[in-house]
Write a structure and sequence with these properties.
By secondary structure, the protein is mainly alpha-helical. About 45% of the residues lie in helices and about 5% in strands. The chain has 17 helices and 6 strands. The strands form 2 sheets. It has a 3-stranded antiparallel beta sheet. The longest helix is centred in the middle third of the chain and has 21 residues. The protein is elongated, with a radius of gyration of 37 Å.
Length: about 425
């Protein structure tokens, strides 16, 4: 018969009372030392353990008074839930559920980690790195905007940065209300700014949801603001003023580039280039086409175009007249590089009164082209649009006054004449 363990209380040099539990008496299966504030408490615990083991055996579990109290409180909480469904309201089930929750927290991602994963995934999927403009926009939303264009990183207005508020939080802990409050407080200047911020925040949670890091996407039910601003276009009078300006000594060397912006609908970045794109070359301007091409055109290669594919933009006679005015020996290299003409082009826009009106020439081209040729598909192809709804929102609703859609194609260099531009069949 095995010898009975000695559970007699002992006292160490520090005056603390304790009992040593052998593995067979310990709930952990290992030797355990328990401390007590007094000899009496130690004696009580020792007798209780001996009685419990004698009655229930060493494999049973004996709760301490505090553990027993916690268990009773937990059972009471479960019974008071007053749930309608049929659930297993036991401590075992509750502990299992809570254990799974804690394991989930251990595996959870922070908002910052989810953002990095989302960006990496989208970069791999497209096979292209993000543009400098897109990165600037993302950093402004996530880390706070810069107070001025040339400001340093440590000058960011951090209070307005999404990651400043939520970056270290578990991505599964962010609520719809918190995101809505953030947008309402820090991005309420305009509907466009609000939508821009939401456009960068949503992919974090969409990616986390697809990965199973969150059970519910908190941005799924946050709607975009409805932007009803009418697309602004230049009047024929304003276009004629622009034509006058580019025939003056001050702006004549920019006539080719500005006329392409005015009458080809090309994006400024496609023509002038930026940190990610090279400027368009004169080699892309085909004034005397051969073979299958019957009209002069501008070939916008993939390296210059927005998106994945390049495109060909057909030129109407008035634009051809503007470009033919450039001597052959000057039709070399870049047509209108940003690095060379950025400052002077800004002065031209100021003189014309269109400072701050982004893409005003492109918007005007799309409007006049569509309302003259009456072909939505052709206009979208010319402009490189892929979204029919976006195109219709910006260009289809506006109705130019009187015969302005016709007069637009008659604006040519002084002394030049151009034939009337016919219509396409409606597609």
């Amino acid at each position: 018969m095995p010898r009975r363990p000695n559970l007699k209380p002992k006292r160490n040099k520090q005056g603390e009372w304790f009992i040593d539990l052998p593995p067979s008496y310990s709930s952990t299966g290992k030797r355990q030392r328990r401390y007590f504030p007094s000899e009496a408490r130690a004696q009580t615990e020792s007798r209780g353990i001996e009685i419990h083991v004698k009655k229930h055996g060493v494999d049973s579990t004996r709760f301490a008074a505090s553990e027993s109290s916690d268990a009773k409180a937990a059972i009471k909480m479960l019974k008071s839930l007053n749930l309608k469904g049929d659930y297993e309201l036991t401590l075992k089930a509750a502990v299992k559920h809570y254990s799974e929750h804690l394991i989930g927290l251990e595996k959870a991602r922070t908002v910052s980690e989810a953002l990095r994963a989302s960006v990496d995934y989208r970069t791999r999927r497209t096979g292209k790195s993000w543009s400098h403009g897109h990165k600037r926009e993302l950093n402004s939303i996530m880390y706070g905007p810069l107070p001025k264009p040339r400001a340093k990183e440590d000058e960011r207005i951090k209070e307005r940065g999404f990651l400043v508020h939520f970056g270290d939080r578990n991505v599964d802990s962010i609520t719809e209300e918190e995101i809505s409050n953030f947008l309402g407080k820090h991005h309420r200047a305009s509907e466009y700014q609000y939508n821009q911020a939401l456009r960068h925040i949503s992919p974090i949670f969409s990616h986390a949801h697809k990965r199973g890091w969150i059970t519910l996407n908190p941005t799924a039910f946050i709607p975009k603001k409805n932007i009803r601003a009418e697309t602004e276009v230049l009047t024929i009078k304003e276009f004629r003023r622009a034509a006058e300006l580019i025939q003056t000594d001050e702006y004549r060397n920019m006539a080719a580039g500005i006329s392409i912006l005015m009458f080809a609908g090309i994006r400024p970045t496609e023509l002038m280039g930026n940190e990610d794109k090279p400027p368009l070359l004169w080699d892309s301007v085909i004034l005397n086409p051969q073979g299958v091409h019957t009209k002069p055109y501008i070939d916008i290669p993939e390296a210059n175009a927005k998106g994945v594919d390049g495109r060909q933009v057909q030129m109407e006679p008035n634009l051809v007249k503007w470009l033919e005015g450039v001597p052959n020996e000057k039709r070399k290299g870049a047509i209108f590089p940003k690095a060379k003409y950025h400052y002077k082009y800004s002065k031209f826009r100021e003189a014309l009164g269109v400072t701050g009106k982004k893409d005003i020439f492109r918007h005007s081209f799309g409007t006049y082209y569509f309302h003259h040729f009456e072909s939505l598909e052709k206009t979208m192809s010319q402009m490189g649009h892929t979204s029919r709804s976006t195109f219709e929102k910006h260009y289809k609703r506006y109705n130019p006054e009187e015969d302005s859609a016709f007069l637009y194609w008659q604006i040519a260099p002084e002394g030049a004449t151009v034939p009337e531009v016919g219509h396409f069949a409606v597609l």
